[in-house]
Design a protein that fits this description.
By secondary structure, the chain is an alpha/beta fold. The chain contains 16 helices and 16 strands. Helix 5 crosses helix 6 and helix 7 packs parallel to helix 8. The structure holds N-(iminomethyl)-L-glutamic acid and fe (iii) ion. The site of fe (iii) ion has 5 residues, from loops.
């Protein structure tokens, strides 16, 4: 299939974009893409490709902008229930961490998720996956973390794998048993840490070989934060995970700085996420590291907090910056990377081009998938979007709507 007549074909060709290099869109005006068997064969101008492939089946982009599908590098897609009551409590002055230490927060979603059967969990999560896809997300990293016991964490993982199998949204799985201390382990944080290291991670590896042997191992993530896992517990979990061959991700510096960014990047984590209260020294360290920084501006926005990732400083230090929704029931129930782009331009002071690169090629890097997705280049998976507008900057300029007209996933066309 030849998709032609795109006002702007935004290829984002090249490698993940470090520091001030962020925002190289690689635009081909009046562009076209040739796709066969779900893979990109060639990109070029409409004139060249129509001449070269006159007999190919055609799809007219109708003078609108075309770009890679969004990669959402951090979501907690699978949960049951909602926390609208807590949102109202926060508006009345209670903080996220106060609600969490009083047994609400993540614990209340754990309760609802543990109680939900497979079908309920699948049904509620599928609705969100479909919404994400309709807003142009073609691949999403997504975490367990509302089970906090082996059986229930694996039940969430099973939902995740089933959603990936159903498609069209493709899922990159992450195991997040270290999301919170379960209430039955209150006051025994080290015992829960030990349980994760000695029992859950080895059992996850066995389970994976039975259920998903052909897929790469999932990421192991830790919420390194006061009130969740401290630096020493984070180190223990990462050491155990790494020795079993799991790649790493970390939630760091969302509310307080514990040194998690330095620890995770030194251990070779694929990404560190949130990165709000990060120290100047750690920003310099991340600038020299291969670990991506995933900024989640919906989270402070969702919490009505004024502190955002210091994106300008990270870019000046040469870090690899990516964006994601953090879709979750507590802080950021948002399925739209378009909204994230609009928000990032206003709160992180990114240009529209920088935000777009952070939501595609760099987000692919942050999920370990930049060899196959995140840009429009020969040999990559044919995951792309046709917008309803001619100029990509509308993705940042406008907000709250849906400017995606057509989503193409592995070469299959889904009109929206
Ligand atoms: O990334 N910080 C930890 N996890 C989520 C919130 C999850 C929840 O509140 O349910 C986050 O913000
Ligand atoms: Fe998160």
């Amino acid at each position: 299939m030849l998709i032609h007549s795109a006002s702007q074909l935004i290829t984002l060709a090249g490698s993940p974009q470090r520091g001030r290099d962020l925002g190289r869109l690689g635009i081909i005006p009046n562009g076209a893409v040739l796709i066969r068997d779900g893979v990109i064969i060639e990109t070029g101008t409409t004139l060249d490709l129509l001449n070269k492939y006159p007999d190919e089946e055609r799809l007219d982009a109708d003078g609108k902008a075309m770009l890679p599908g969004f990669v959402d590098a951090h979501t907690h897609l699978v949960w049951a229930g909602d926390r609208a009551v807590e949102f109202e409590m926060r508006l009345q002055g209670k903080s996220y961490m106060e609600i969490m230490t009083a047994g609400g927060g993540i614990a209340s979603t754990v309760k609802a998720t543990r109680a939900a059967d497979h079908e309920t969990l699948l049904h509620e999560s599928r609705a969100r996956a479909n919404a994400m896809f309709s807003y142009g997300t073609t691949t999403a990293e997504t975490k367990t973390g509302y089970g906090l016991a082996l059986k229930t964490e694996l039940a969430q993982m099973a939902v995740l794998l089933q959603l990936d199998h159903e498609g069209p949204l493709e899922i990159v799985p992450t195991f997040l048993a270290a999301h919170a201390i379960p209430t039955e382990y209150a006051g025994r944080e080290d015992a829960y840490t030990q349980l994760i290291c000695a029992e859950m991670l080895p059992a996850l590896k066995d389970w994976w070989h039975h259920k998903a042997a052909n897929k790469p191992l999932p990421f192991v993530d830790v919420f390194c934060e006061k009130g969740a896992f401290n630096l020493d517990q984070t180190l223990q979990i990462f050491t155990a995970a790494r020795s079993l061959g799991f790649p790493l991700k970390a939630h760091v510096d969302e509310f307080e700085n514990l040194g998690g960014a330095a620890l995770a990047s030194e251990l070779g984590a694929t990404s560190v996420d949130h990165v709000v209260k990060t120290s100047a020294a750690e920003i310099q360290l991340l600038g020299r590291s291969k670990t991506a920084v995933v900024s989640l501006p919906c989270t402070p926005f969702g919490l009505a907090d004024a502190h955002y990732t210091p994106a300008k400083d990270l870019l000046a230090a040469d870090a690899i910056l990516a964006l994601a929704t953090d879709l979750n029931p507590g802080t950021a129930w948002c399925e739209s990377m378009q909204f994230v782009i609009a928000l990032a331009c206003r709160t992180l002071k990114l240009t529209p081009a920088q935000a777009l690169a952070a939501a595609t090629i760099n987000a692919a890097y942050a999920t370990g998938r930049s060899a196959t997705i995140g840009s429009l280049e020969a040999g990559k998976q044919a995951d792309l979007l046709i917008l309803s507008v001619e100029d990509y900057r509308h993705l940042a300029y406008r907000f709250g709507g849906n400017l995606v007209r057509t989503v193409i996933k592995k070469g299959i066309v889904y009109p929206q």
